[in-house]
Amino acid sequence: MSPIALTDSSTQTSAASPLKVPPSSAETVFGRAEGTKYKMIDQPLGQRRHLKVIYLGGGASAINFAHRVTTKLQDVELVCYEKNPELTGTWFENKYPGCACDIPSHTYQFTWNLYPDWPKYYSTSDEIQAYMNKTVDDFGLRKYFKCSHEVVGARWDANTSHWIIKVRRNNDPNDTFEDWCDFFVNGSGLLNAWKWPDIKGLHDFKGKILHTAAYDRSIVTTGKKISLIGVGSSAVQVLPALQPTAEHMYHFFRSKTWITPSFAATYAGPNGSNFEYTQEQKDAFRADPVAHRKYTRAIENELNKRFLFVIKDSDAQREIFENFTKEMKAALNNRQDLIDVLVPDFAVGCRRLTPAPGFLAALQKPNVTPVTTGISHIDETGVVSLDGKHYDSDIIICATGFDISFRPKFPVIGRDNVDLRDKWADRARGYLSMFVDGFPNYITIMGPGSPSAHGPLLASSENVCDYALKVLHRLQTEPIKTIEVKPEAVAELSEHAQEQLKTTAWSSHCSSWFKNGKKDGPLDSLHPGGRLHYFASLANPRWEDFNFEYSNNRFAHYGNGFVLRELEGGDLTWYWASGDRLSLFEY
């Protein structure tokens, strides 16, 4: 039987008409009326109930989710709402000069769609966006997405065991409707809600003011005086991209940061530089997919080893600290004025590492002025530093990051009318980056407790997706109306996580988005271990950590004694397929 994945939007209604929400299919397929005697259901073990899933987002994780759901599950209606007019998420939004991925191209791709035609070892945002869109079209996934549809509210309806989702079309506050689903997946992403810096007079500036997360490529920067604010992963790409053609650049920053060699530099060009793949190399990848996958795994293998130096006070940490310090000083030509303001004294990994080819060289060019005294305010013609100096500017570019609190931008109302924004006001604590107690049938993709500080995120989100599919499959084939993580499981996992994370460089004294912009504090954002530890933790769900609400006897799905494959013409001797069928996960 071929998979079924519908996008019938007939249940959507305008705000003016009431939404008709059906009863849970757990009731109609597996349930029994309250107070009635139990009766066997005349259906086979494995009978599926129809599930409707709403996914928020249209980035890489959403594309992967759409592919996995429509190839691994059946009888699932999937609707993905994306606020932007196009798909690919962060790669659609981030168009600033020099925007590129610091992860090698051949590991920044889906494990199920290896791409032989990557132009370069490290790809630009446009190249990654092209790959993502090609994947969507090659696999027929575009029909599951509704672009320019922004989710602006979600509430749990305990009476029907459904989520009610409010959606705004085309950014028009007068064009909203409600939809419903059995399961709500929030894949909006962590680095999604960009924000202006809190600087007095920012919008008094009469020139052009831009944010790297909403960059206007039509703005001419050649021959202009440009003020660049920030020193994170975006800023260190913008400076070397604009410096050669700008009249002058003033780079405002206060934080020290590790400017490191490129990731997986072993397979990069000389000294970790980028390079273009030849046509012969691309043809070889296409002709031999096995060799291509071997090459990809070799690069990924190097990235997976990086957790060794994350352990605080370890020999590996001391060695890499010394090496990176030496390399940064050399790249700065031992200029003590720049070394004092830029080379960190905190552990390598405390903040996200920023490979930035060309940044340190650009910082020393005659037409670049580093300003590290802090900003007093901005006026109509430029930026005023704390020491009173005025920096006349034509353009101000804010590379100042995102709201990294994990709190949703819209109301997410769970059981007992609890808003997730309030629940996570002080600390955002989840279960394995996915579940929140008090919010049934709800998953966040790469939420608090994810391995976002270690390795490429695509493989991480794939593992999260596969875990989610196991949950959906169980809901489909058993008389389960709701699944909800136990609060004690969240609390005990958090207790362990904070103890383990004390042993890592991530807990060192520095401001980072891992700690919600603070220098010290709980590391609720991170998984207590490397990404391999995280993948192993997801291999077999700990069902004992969840509460289940049943619509009937918990064994009602055992049915009439048959299994579904007997009725669908499936393999009746699957247990003979191999003499050694048992496959236990090996840590």
Describe the structure.
- This protein has 587 residues and is α/β, with parallel strands linked by helices.
- It is 26% helix and 16% strand.
- It has 15 helices and 21 strands.
- It has helices spanning 25-30, 60-72, 90-93, 125-138, 235-242, 279-287, 289-304, 315-331, 336-342, 359-363, 420-423, 457-477, 487-501, 531-538, 564-568; strands at residues 5-6, 13-14, 51-56, 76-81, 145-146, 149-157, 162-169, 176-181, 183-186, 208-211, 225-229, 248-252, 368-371, 375-378, 382-385, 390-392, 395-398, 412-413, 442-444, 480-485, 546-550.
- The strands form five sheets. Strands 1, 3, 4, 5, 9 and 19 form a six-stranded parallel sheet that branches. A five-stranded mixed sheet has the order 2-8-7-6-18, with no helix packed on it. It has a five-stranded parallel sheet with strand order 10-17-11-12-13, with helices on one face.
- The chain is globular and about 85 Å long.
Key features?
587 residues, alpha/beta, 6-stranded parallel sheet
TL;DR of this structure?
The chain has 587 residues and is α/β, with parallel strands linked by helices. The protein has helices at residues 25-30, 60-72, 90-93, 125-138, 235-242, 279-287, 289-304, 315-331, 336-342, 359-363, 420-423, 457-477, 487-501, 531-538, 564-568; strands at residues 5-6, 13-14, 51-56, 76-81, 145-146, 149-157, 162-169, 176-181, 183-186, 208-211, 225-229, 248-252, 368-371, 375-378, 382-385, 390-392, 395-398, 412-413, 442-444, 480-485, 546-550.
Indicate the mean pLDDT: 94
In terms of DSSP E residues, the strand content is: 15-25%
Radius of gyration: 26 Å
Largest sheet: 6 strands, parallel
* Unreliable segments of 5+ consecutive residues: 1-10
